[in-house]
Structure formats: structure tokens, C-alpha cells
Amino acid sequence: MFAKPYNPYLHSFASGALLSIAWPTYGFFPIIFIAFIPLLYVCEHFKNLSLFQIYRVSLFAFLIWNITTAWWICKYDFLGGSVVLMLNSMGMASVIWAYVILKRKQILLKCGALGFISLWLSWEWIHQHWDLSWPWLNLGNVFANTPQIIQWYEYTGVFGGSLWVLLVNWLIFESYKAIRGRVGKRIIVFNIVLTAIVIFVPITLSLTRYFSYVETNQPVKIAIIQQNTNPKAEQKDAFEDVINRRIIQLAQSVVDSNTSILVCPESALLETLSEENINSKKSILEIKKFSSLFPKLTMVIGGTTYQNAKNESSENNANTNSFLPYQKFNSALIIDSTDVIRFYHKSKLVPGVEEYPFKFISIPLLKWLNNQDFEIKFSKENNSKTFEITDKSAKLGVVICYESIYGEWITSFVNDGASIIAIITNDGWWDNCDGYKQHLAYSRLRAIETRRTIARSANTGISAFINQRGDIIAQTSWNSAQTLNEVVNSNKFLTFYVKNGDYITRIANLITIILGLLLAIKVIINKKR
Questions:
Q1: Cα distances (angstroms) measured from residue 518 to each of 115, 427, 513, 524
Q2: Exposure string (b/e) for 212-222, b if CB count within 10 Å is 16 or more?
Q3: What is the pTM for the complete model shown?
Q4: Could you tell me the sign of the dihedral formed by the alpha carbons of 474, 413, 219, 294, in that order?
Q5: What whole-number distance in Å separates Cα of residue 426 and Cα of residue 421?
Q6: Among 287, 226, 242, residue whose Cα is nearest residue 440
Q7: pLDDT tens-place string over residues 417-440
Q8: Whose CA is closest to 395, among 448, 334, 458, 305?
Q9: 318 and 343 Cβ atoms separated by less than 8 Å
């Protein structure tokens, strides 16, 4: 498995390649359990390397992983995508660098696993919450297409999967060291047995849960349309009438008198809509004319909306760009037979594309430079919102695109009463590559964590129904106008993860803070000596 000790970059290449080979949607997930071992070997045996060299070696591994699994983000914006991949790799390399510092300062002593795992989990937590958030490659996501073995995510969330990956890598590495060091058969057998337990007990419990899980019979009939608007060619005002007709035609083909919910994609409406005058807009009038034919129907459709910045009716918790005369939102519109249209404004915005990171610096700077591009960025709400549907058979949580990779965020909808989750997205910007497939796969994790049926409408695909075990029960193909129609079950039960959030990473954060304090104390003591 290991290269010669004098060539750390071959070890780095091995880790990067193994991480890539394991990753969905084409990867073989068991490889993830040995992917960190070459890097751990570097940390353990290349003591002659400086900290800067350790950082470079680690960065090489994570650049390989990031580029091979997420290169497709550069198809939308090459420069912006390249920056994301580099910054993500640098953050991961910083974890290994910090771990080596703790080892060399003898802070960890015999508890190396504690430092390695807590540092990585803390990085994943930070990557969920800071302004450059992009948790696409959080380790627990690797099992997205094998829901049978991760049913326990209803207790731990995706961070439990990250912990599992890190712990197994460490245990296998310790077993390897025991065998190479010939420390004694008892220790070797103990390490091997412990590793097997940590691998197979969660899988066994998960399979038992998977095959015994039965959904409560609370049927709701849901339709999905995939309108297949080309975002690079058709998503312009000139195509507004064409797209509106396509939406109505697809809806007519799939909705009947028993349909409770119709889910349409993100940005399906091309017209920028004033929320104050929403009922006077042509596209809305056409949709309301259709929905009036089905009194029990609740329709979810994506569009861009705006409010006057000084409008007193604006959401109190909206995040605004104070220098703009209006607030613009990536919105989901909830339309039924009444005259009232309800809105959910996207809260987890894509850094750089939808929101400027570190606004306290970037927005004043852009304003000073008079760069007009800042006016295209979106405002957001900071709270989730759920909606009672017309026939009262379910309460709906609507998630827009990028938000679906944030497990903890989705739990806020469920805690607010959502019994079904609708995900609306537009993955067509990346063309036919692995990005939209990974995005679909990650939605399966949300179903397991919350035990909620998911209705996913994607503009160019893939749209799908996902049941409460994380199985895809129906899906469309890529790049075609299609519809789906299923009777699914809503669910009001709250999982342990929904009620308790990502407690694993909070513990990891606490441990990391303690390790940091110990390191600071150690440095101060050494200086005094």
C-alpha cells in the first residue's frame, strides 16, 4: 500500500486517488475506509518534513480529490470554480497540518485519533456555517447511494458518517502499525477485531432497520414536472411565453382532481416578479387560471421575486443589501385556489454566485468601486418556513437547490412541522456531468435523516421521488421534459437527529478548542523555559 518512505508525494497521490475512487456517483464506497491511511503514514513516519512541506503534501492529495470529483463546477464559472476547489483543498490540508503540529508538540500523546477526528469534524462544521460554505465533500456524503448501510443517520446525521470514516481509517492504520511492528498477537488480534466491530456493527444495525422500516399510511398524491429549460439558452425574457406554455402543458398532463401537490423546478418562472403586485403578472395569471381548475391543489414553483427595501411587509428576518432600492430573492411561490400567494425565500445562498461572502468587507468595497455586478446578488431569510397545503393532508417544507446539502438546515423545516419535503432545483448549468447526479444522491441522505418523503423537481433532471428509507422510487431521465406522479406518505415523527441536530460535531468542536488551548499553553511554557 505504501510507497518508499523518501517519497511522501506518492503517499499523497495514493490518498487523493483513493478518496476520488470512493466518491459517488461512480465510486466504490468501501475504498473510503482506507483512503486516509497513506496521509496518516506521512504524518507518522516523515518526521524530517517541515510543517510547510507537510501542508504541501496534504494539499496535493486534497487537490486530486476535489478536482476529480467536483471539476464540473468550473463549467459554470472556470475562475470561480477553480477558487472554490483550491480553497476547499487548502482547508482540508490545514486539518492535517494542525494535526501534525499537535503531534510534534506532544499535545496528543497516545490520543492521536482524538485530535485527527475532532479537527476534521470541526472543519466540516465550519464549512457548513461560514461565508465560504461548500460542504459538498463532507465525508459522510460518500454513502449517499447506499442508503441500506446508513439508516442510523436518523440518529447522527451525515456527520456520523464522517466520524465512521475517520475512525475506521485510524483503526486500520493502527492495525497496520501493529502488524509491521510485531507488537504481539494479542494486540494485533484486538485491533483487527475492534476494526471489524466498528465496520460491521453499524452496517448490521442499519440493514435490520432498513428491512424492518414501514412507513405510516398517510397518503398524499404528488405530481412533479421537469420542464427542461436550457439555462444557458432559453432562460431569458424572450422565451418567457414558450416556457410558461410548456409548464402549463406538462401540468395539465399530470394533475388530476386527486392531486394535492404539484412541484415545479427552481427558476421555472422567467419573469422577475414584484411580490407587492404579484397577482397582476402575466405568468402568475396563467398559472392561477390553471390551478383554479383543481380546488384542492397546492402548487410549488420557483422564480425570482423582489420587494421594495422599505416595504413594511417584508420579512423581519430578511438579510438585506441596504444600499439597494429593493430586495431580490430566489423564491419558491406557493400557489393555490385562493388569491393569496405565499413565498419562501432561499436562505442558503451559493457563495459568490448568489451572495457575496464576508459582506461587511465585500459590499462596501464593491459599492466604493461602483461595480454594477453587485446588484444581481440575492437577499435571504434566516429562518425556515413551512406551508399547510390546501387539503390539509400534509405540511410542506420547500427547499431550494443548494440548501438540500445542509442536513441540519433541513431539520429546521421538520421541527417546524413539515411532513413532506419538496426540493426544487436547476442543475442544468453544469450540463451532463456528475454534479447533478451527486446532488440527487445527497437528497437521499436528507430523507433518511428526517424520515420524510422527498419530491424533487429539477429543471433539466434528475427529478425524483425518494421514500423515507432513502430509496429512489421513481425518477426522470436527464435533459428531457417529463412528469412524475406518485402517491407517497407524509410523516410527523421526529427522528433523534431532527430533535438534537449535529451534536457529534459540537462535541468535536469542544475537543478541538481544548486541544488548541493545550497547544497554546505548551508553547507559552516552552518560551518561558
A1: 12, 45, 9, 10
A2: eeebeeeebbb
A3: 0.91
A4: negative
A5: 17
A6: 226
A7: 999 999 999 999 888 889 999 999
A8: 334
A9: no
